[in-house]
What we know:
Structural class: mainly alpha
Helix content: over 70%
Number of strands: 0
Oligomer: single chain
Radius of gyration: 15 Å
Largest sheet: none
Order of helices and strands: HHHHH
Strand content: under 5%
Amino acid sequence: MTEALFWLYLINAVLLINHEIDSAYWKEWDLFKLPGGLAGFLLLHFPLLFIILYGMAAVAWQRPSATWFSVLLSTGGIFAFGIHTYFLKQGREEFDHPVSKFILWATLIVSLGQLMVTILILTHRTAV
């Protein structure tokens, strides 16, 4: 099951990183009213990308922290889908493109699968 978690984590990381590339196109800093414009947005992504990639290493190395990084990434993916769906329903034009929507829907599906596998791993650990 840990191998499945690795692949789900990797796929989700790629989806979320692509979403963040898409976010730069849509000027997400304006959508969320983040200070610093593009520069602030890019600087914010150094720690975010570090956490995502370090978490993938933790999953690959089967570290005890792996499941918590997995929960963090999967809930981040679910949140990304939810908040952007909310904005779309409010009439915002950001992310209203077929590829943007595909990335968000794929992120939701993979995030839910990843979260389920992570919960199964956590449940199995506590049962042993």
